Amino acid sequence: MMRRSLVIVMVACSCATAIARGGGGGGLKLNFYSESERCPRAEEVVREEVRRLYEEHGNTAVSWLRALFHDCMVYSCDASLLLHTTTTTGVSEQSSHRSFGMRNFKYITAIKAAVERECPATVSCADILALAARDGVAMLGGPSVAMRTGRRDSRESYYGVVEQYIPNHNDSVSTVLSRFAAIGVDTEGAVALLGAHSVGRVHCFNLVGRLYPQVDGSMEAAYGEYLRGRCPTAAATEDTREVVYARNDRVTPMLIDNMYYRNLLAGRGLLLVDQQLASDARTAPYVRRMAADNDYFHQRFAAALLTMSENAPLTGAQGEVRKDCRFVNSS
């Protein structure tokens, strides 16, 4: 089976499961840790660590955003993505075909360690993922998001269903929209969240289908030639050891801004699903509006990110607060 996935930041899901787990962000609140005095500096510690890691390893901010997407789309925002493979929890979601290219999980472990030093066994890994994504977005020039907290962590991995929830980069617009709709993100919100492709990069393995034997007709000719220069052979595979990639946006590659949409209108969409947004009647009006108004894009992006981050959280007595994000707590 070919391993292709959306880069960040993404058949209908089992909505009944999501509803059963509490959907709609119930139980989450702003300043959950500080108001309860459980860990008054929790969000500050996460922000300090995110900034430190960003300054040392700039690409981490993009990783946080993609990690939150992959975690929240599969059943719940419950940090199941972070679990390693064990006999207790099953195969890690990180081993899924859809997780191809994901990295920097070790730095989430570093953030968790800093929070544990501040207040042991108090702040969930699921909240750390959400807060790190929020702070990463801000560092990438994106909007501020009023992220609520109070999530708890899953005790199991959902490797077996990841591909039912995470869309593929060459899926139809209908499929992508249906998967976002299943977690409460409407068409406008889905177009905004895909704007996360304004940052980061794509492995050539995910591009060569649009470049060979001929350049996709929906792609600007000059852009196609540039991409062929970055990806000079159709034989690129997921096992290519060299880091062969193209940036999503060459103009403002480390800013979450509306250049993504302006590129789509010019035929410079990197992934197939990106370019199709500009021509599909359901999404094209939003592409045009976001291309014309960066503030509007940021507003819609912030709202959609908040909705995604509150998909069916575990709260109250559900789940647990893991001491190590990679493993469930020992009984």
Automatic annotation (TrEMBL):
Where does the Plant heme peroxidase family profile domain lie?
Answer: 27-329
SS bonds (residue pairs)? 39-119, 72-77, 125-325, 204-231
Q: Which UniProt keywords apply?
A: Biological rhythms, Calcium, Disulfide bond, Glycoprotein, Heme, Hydrogen peroxide, Iron, Metal-binding, Oxidoreductase, Peroxidase, Pyrrolidone carboxylic acid, Secreted, Signal
Q: Where is the active site?
A: 70
List of residues binding Ca(2+) 2: 249, 252, 257
Database matches in Pfam families: peroxidase (PF00141)
Query: What cofactor does this one take?
Result: heme b; Ca(2+)
Q: Which InterPro entries does this UniProt record tie to the protein?
A: Haem_peroxidase, Haem_peroxidase_sf, Peroxidase_pln, Peroxidases_AS, Secretory_peroxidase
Give residues annotated as binding substrate: 167
For this protein, the record's Gene3D superfamilies field holds:
1.10.520.10, Peroxidase, domain 2 (1.10.420.10)
The keyword Methyltransferase is assigned to this record: no
What Enzyme Commission number(s) apply to this enzyme? 1.11.1.7
Top-rank taxon of the source lineage equals Eukaryota
Residues that hold heme b according to the record: 197
Protein task: Removal of H(2)O(2), oxidation of toxic reductants, biosynthesis and degradation of lignin, suberization, auxin catabolism, response to environmental stresses such as wounding, pathogen attack and oxidative stress. These functions might be dependent on each isozyme/isoform in each plant tissue.
Family from the record: Belongs to the peroxidase family. Classical plant (class III) peroxidase subfamily.
Q: What is this protein called?
A: Peroxidase
This protein's species is: Oryza glaberrima (African rice)
Q: What is the lineage of its organism?
A: Eukaryota, Viridiplantae, Streptophyta, Embryophyta, Tracheophyta
The gene that this protein is the product of is: LOC127778391
